[in-house]
Amino acid sequence: MQNFVGVGVSRGRVIGPVRHMPAALAEPPVGEKLASSTTPETAAAALKEAGAAVKAQLLARAGGAEGTGKDVLEATALMATDPMLIKAAVKLINSGSSAERAIWEAGESVAAMLKGLGGYMAERSHDVQDVKSRIVAQLRGVPAPEIPDSDAPFILVAEDLAPADTATLDPNKVVALVTASGGPQSHTAIIARALGLPAVVAATGVGGLADSGLVFVDGSTGQVSTDPGDAEHAAVALWQEQASLLSVFDGEGRLADGTLLPLLANVGGDSDAREAAAANAQGVGLLRTEFCFLGNDTEPSHAVQVAAYRGVFDAFPGQKVVVRTLDAGADKPLPFLTDTSEANPALGVRGYRTDTTTPGVLARQLAAIADAAKQSQAVVWVMAPMISTAAEAAHFAALCTAEGLKIPGVMVEVPSAALTARHLFDHVEFASLGTNDLTQYAMAADRQLGTLAALNDPWQPAVLALIRATVEGAASQARYSAAHALEDSAPRDSAPKPVGVCGESAADPVLAVVLAGLGVTSLSMTPRALPAVSAVLRTVTLPQARALAMEAVAAASAAEALELVRAGLPALAELGL
Amino acid sequence: MIERSATIASTVGLHARPASIFAEAAGELGIEVTIARASDPVDEAVDADSMLALMGLGVEHGELVVLRTEDDTAAEALESLVRILETNHDA
Asked: Per the domain annotation, does B90 fall within a domain?
C-alpha cells in the first residue's frame, strides 16, 4: 500500500479506479514548421483524418447526451470537419506550417470571426476553440484535454481543475476528486462540495498513480491510498451508513438550547435556487449575480436582468434572498468592466470598485434587482462585494436607496472592513462575511495556490479574530451610534445589525459552531452542507459554542484551533464527521 | 452556372440547427455549391457545406439568399437545398 496525504476538502470515503485528467494542451509554437520528412499533402491528409476522428468522438458523445447538450455536441462535431476551417488550415500547411500550428491558427481566426459577431455566435466561438484543441491532441496522439470518458464510475486525478474542466463533470461517473495542487478554497474544493463528492487537494505525488488502479480516498483526513484492504472497505461502508443519516435538513437551523441560527444557501441562478429550496434552505444568503453577466461581452439589458433575478426570488416566496451585486475582476474578469492588464487583479479594480471606473452598471443592476423584487414575494436584501471603507458603504447604501431598495448591506472580505465594521454599520443594515476572500487578504495568500493551502485556512486565528471584530463592530454600533436610533421615530430595539457568513467556512460543520459562538446570526452555504451543519449545531448550546469560539480565537495556530474545537465536540465522532 | 433563390424560413435565421442541417445536406451532394445574400456581390459567396461559414454569413429569418453551382446538371440538387432553407427547422 502506498499512501499520499493531502488536504481533505469535501467529506466522504470511497474506493474506485483512478482516471487521470490529461495535461492541459500546450499551444503549438508560433511559426512551427512542417517536419522536413513530411510533405504538405501528407500533413493535410493527417489533418483531415484527425478532424474526422474528432467528429466521430463528438458524435459518439452526443449519442449519450440529451436536449440542448446533444444539439451543441452535434453542432460541435460538424465543426471538426468543416470545409471552411479545414481549407484555411490546409492553406497554412501549403505555405509551410505544421498541421498542428495550422489548425490552431485557423481555429483562432474562425473563433475571432464568430466572437466579433456577438451574441449566439460569440458563444459558439468556444466550441471552435474546443474543436481546434481536440484536433491538435488527436494529431499529437495524446488524449483530449477533458475529463476522460468511462462507462464505470472513477476517481478523477488531476494536477488541478479549472472551471472549464469541471463544466462537463458528471457526478454519476466521477465519485471523488484528487488533485496534486490546489488549496481548500480552490475551484476543485468548491465544486466537490457543491456536488457532494469526496475530495482531497494538495496531495503531492498523486500524478504518478497507476491509471485504473484502485485507490481509497478519505475527503475528511486527506488520505489517498493504493491497494485498499479490509480496513479501507470497512471505512467506506461506515461512511455510507452515516451519510444516509446526514442527508436531510429539516428547514430550521438551531442550537441545542433552541437558539435560532438560520441556515441559508449560496446560489448562482434559478436552477440552483430551486435545488436549495428543495433542500429546505431558509432563504438565500448569497446570490452570485455573475451568472447573469459572465460570458457576455456587453452588459445584459434591464429586462434580461429582471427575469434572471426573478427566477431566483420566486423560489423563495416570503423568505430572505441576499443579492450580491456584480463581483467582477480578479478570477472573474468581464470584458466591459475589468482591466485584465492589472499586475495584481485580486488587489485591483474588482467588485464594488468597478463602479468608480465604469459608473452606471451598478446603478442599473440595482434598478433591475428592485424591479424584480417588486414583482416577487421574496424579502430582498442587497450587498456590495469588496467594500473597504465606511465611505464606500455609505455610497452603496445611497445607490440602493435611490432605487428603492430598503435593506442595503456589505460583504466583509477586506480586513479593513472587519476592523472598522462599527462605522460601516452606520450606513448599512447588515454585513455578510465572505470568508474565502477575507482569508486570502488577511493571510496575503492567493486562494488558488496549493503551496499556500496551510495559510489559506479560515481556521487561522487571525481570520477568526477578524470575524469577531466584525460582530463586535455591529454590537458597538448598536450601543453608541445615534444615527441608528434616528432612522425611524418608533423606539427601536437596540439589537446589533445582523452579521452573516456566506463563505465556504460556513459549510464546515465544526467551524459553524465557532461562528455561532462568535455571534454570527446566519450561515449561508452550498445546500449539500445544510444537513451536516444543522446536525452538529444541534449538539451544542450557545454558551458551549461561545466557550469553544473563545478557545479557537485564542489558539496559537489554525491546527490548534481546530484540535481544541474538535476535542470539545464529542458528537462529531458519533456523526462520523 | 445555375442559381436558385430562397427565403430563410427558420425563425432563428441560418444559425445553429438550421445551419448544421443545411451544411450537412450540402456536403452530401458531392458538388460545390455557394451561398450568398441576394443583395451581396457574387465574390462574397461562401461554401454552402461549411456551417462555420454559414454562421459567419449571419443570415436572418426572412432574408433572401442565392445558391450557385458551376455544375449545370445539378438543378435538382439546388432545389433540394432550397426546400431545406424554406422549411422552418425551429418549428
From this structure: no
Q: How many CB pairs under 8 A join A and B?
A: 50
> In terms of domains, do A124 and A174 share one?
no
Alpha carbon distance A143, A206 (integer Å): 19
Is residue A83 less than 8 Å (CB to CB) from chain B? yes
Tell me if chain A has a CB within 8 Å of the CB of B27: yes
Task: Find the catalytic residue in A20, A187, A423, A427.
Answer: A187
Residues B50, A71: C-beta atoms closer than 8 Å: no
The domain total for chain B is 1
E strand or H helix that includes residue A535: helix A530-537
Give the residue on A whose Cα is nearest the Cα of B56. Answer: A114
Q: How far apart are CA A287 and CA A309, in angstroms?
A: 9
CATH number (domain holding residue A166): 3.50.30.10
The answer on A412 and A308 residing in a single domain is yes
Whether B15 is a known active-site residue: answer yes
User: What CATH number has the domain bearing residue B59?
Assistant: 3.30.1340.10
Does residue B91 sit within a domain? no
Provide the pairing of β-strand A430-433 with A263-267. unpaired
Q: How many CB atoms lie within 10 A of CB A218?
A: 23
Distance from CA of A50 to the nearest CA of B (A): 18
Residue A283 covered by a domain: yes
State which residues form the domain around A200. 3-21+152-245
Full strand arrangement of the beta sheet holding B33-37: B2-7, B64-69, B33-37, B46-47
Are A213 and A357 in the same domain? no
Q: Last residue of some domain: A90, A115, A140?
A: A140
CB contacts, 8 Å: A82 with chain B: 23, 50-53
Which residue of B52, B57, B90 to mutate against A (max A Cβ within 10 Å)? B52
A34: exposed, middle or buried (C-beta count within 10 Å: 0-12, 13-18, 19+)?
Answer: buried
Domain range holding B40?
2-85
A133/A183 same-domain check: no
Number of structural domains in chain A: 3
Q: Is the dihedral of CA A194, A198, A200, A206 positive or negative?
A: negative
In A, which residues are within 8 Å of B58 by CB distance? 117, 121
Least CB–CB distance from B20: residue in A75, A110, A120: A75
A205 and A273 co-located in one domain: no
The shortest C-alpha distance from A228 to chain B (Å) reads 49
Helix (H, G, I), strand (E, B) or coil at A509: helix
- Cell output for A186: 480552490
Q: Quick check: B16 and A82 CB within 8 A?
A: no
Q: What residues pair up with A329 in beta bridges, in sequence order?
A: A332
Helices (H) and strands (E) counted in chain B, each on its own, are: 3, 4
In this complex, which of A74, A110, A117 lies closest to B58 when CB atoms are compared?
Answer: A117
Q: Tell me whether residues A124 and B55 touch, CB distance under 8 A.
A: yes
Instruction: Flag whether residue A71 sits within 8 Å of chain B, measured between CB atoms.
Output: yes
Question: B18: nearest CA in chain A?
Answer: A75
Do A13 and A50 belong together in one domain?
no
A217 and A273 together in one domain: no
Q: How do the pLDDT tens digits run along chain A, 577 residues long?
A: 899 999 999 989 999 999 999 887 889 999 999 988 999 999 999 999 999 999 998 888 888 766 666 777 788 889 999 999 999 999 999 999 999 999 999 999 999 998 888 777 777 888 898 899 999 999 999 988 888 888 899 999 998 887 667 767 888 899 999 999 888 877 788 888 888 899 999 999 999 999 999 999 999 899 999 999 999 999 999 888 777 767 789 999 999 999 999 999 999 999 999 999 999 999 999 999 987 887 777 889 999 999 999 999 999 999 999 999 999 876 677 777 777 778 888 899 999 999 999 899 999 999 999 999 999 999 999 999 999 999 999 999 999 999 999 999 999 999 999 999 999 999 999 999 999 999 999 999 988 888 898 899 999 999 999 999 999 999 999 987 654 454 554 444 578 999 999 988 899 999 999 999 999 999 999 998 999 999 999 999 999 999 999 999 999 999 999 999 999 998 887 776 7
Same domain, A135 and A156: no
Confirm whether A170 is domain-assigned: yes
